[in-house]
Every structure is written in C-alpha cells, then in structure tokens.
Amino acid sequence: MSVQLKAGVIGLGILGSQHAQFLDDQPEVKVMAVADIRRDRAEAVGGHISAQPYTDYERMLKEQKLDVAVVATPDPLHRDPVLAAIKAGVPTIIEEKPMATAVADAEEMLEAAERAGARLFLCFFNRSSPLDRATYYVIQQGLLGFFSLSL
Which residue from 2, 70, 87, 110 has the fewest beta carbons nearer than 10 Å? Predict the structure, then answer.
C-alpha cells in the first residue's frame, strides 16, 4: 500500500469545497480536516468527505499533522492561514489566487515559506479553460472595447 498524503483545506466557499472534494477523490490523498468560520459549512463538507471539521484553522493546524494545506479563504484573508500553515510545519501549501491583495503580505508569505523550506503554490486553474483562453484572445486581438464610427 502506498503512503497517503494528509491534507487539510482552509476556507470552504465554492473553491475550497471543490478542492476538498477533488483531494478526497484522489486515492493518494486523505483529507484529514477542513476549516471554515461557518460551523455549518465545516460540518457539512467535513461530513461529506469524512474529514474532521474545524471553525478555527489554527486549532486544526495544531491538532493535525498535514502534508498539504489548501488555503481558499477570501482574497484579502490569505496571509494569516498561509503563515499559520508554514509555522505549523506544513511542507506544501496550495493557495488560491491571488496570492495577496497587498504586496507586503505576498512578500511576507514568500519569505516565510523560503525560510521554512516550505513549498507555496498558487492555483490558477482557469488559465487553461477554453472560455478564459478565448477571452484572452479577444482582448489581445483588440476585439473587445469601444470603437467609434466616422460618418
């Protein structure tokens, strides 16, 4: 039997719940815990995938020895859970985009990850979706925007 990675997800909105379900579907991963400030949401997602629900991610990180943590909190709230995961010794952190809404926060997370030897990944899964690629093409070709007619 192969070793399973122990994962946790912080933030259980649309993307966080999708991360939890995706990870749960992988045979090489066991989602040990999920955290959201909304107790009902943490219990619903945790119950669905048989993961321990938490309303406090810091408590989750203290009680669980994780190999991977996913941070999918609202954009301005990425810094603290990322730093907490690094401090807890989680070696791999996957963070939803954007990395931060302030440059200082991004720099602090990056420096903390480098000091700890943690791997910090940003998730840009839409970069290859057909609709996003088509939108990029339309913008790059100047096909979107205002124009004027000279009569």
Answer: 2
Each residue's pLDDT, cut to its tens digit, for the chain (151 residues) gives: 467 999 999 999 999 999 999 999 999 999 999 999 999 999 999 999 999 999 999 999 999 999 999 999 998 999 999 999 999 999 999 999 888 989 999 999 999 999 999 999 998 766 666 776 777 777 777 776 655 555 5
The span from the CA of 149 to the CA of 136, in Å, is 25
Neighbours of 118 (CB within 10 A): 20
Separation in Å, CA 55 to CA 52, 60, 103, 117, 119: 10, 8, 28, 28, 25
Q: Please state the φ and ψ torsions of residue 149, each to the nearest 5 degrees.
A: -105, 130
* Residues β-bridged to residue 8: 33, 69
Rounded to 5°, the CA angle 143-144-150 comes to 80
Q: The tokens of 42 are what? A: 């943490």
Helix (H) or strand (E) holding 70: strand 68-71
